[in-house]
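Final report, Chapter 2: Outcomes

The project's central promise was a pipeline that accepts a single protein chain and returns its three-dimensional structure in a standardized token representation, suitable for archiving and comparison. That pipeline is now operational. To close this chapter, we reproduce one record exactly as it appears in the project archive, with the input sequence first and the structure output second.
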Amino acid sequence: MPPKVRDYKREYALSKKRGEQDGRVERNKARRELSRAGLVHKGDGKDIDHKRPISKGGSNARSNLRVVSAHTNRSFARNSKGGMK
């Protein structure tokens, strides 16, 4: 079975319409906080993961953040339209 092709333009338009792009500021704050703590460094291939995503009501509290590899943080199960399940 061939892999599904994601329609990134459609995904971006829908996420912008729903107001999901506003989480960028929160994600950047989380990265800065853990960078100051010495847990991540620029170019180390690590991402800051929110255990409960901001889009689903999570926060930037330290207890909700963890450091994971970029691959782990970006490889979620997808539905037939390419969005996260």
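Archive annotation: The mean pLDDT is 82.
This record, like all others produced under the grant, will remain available to the consortium after the project formally closes.
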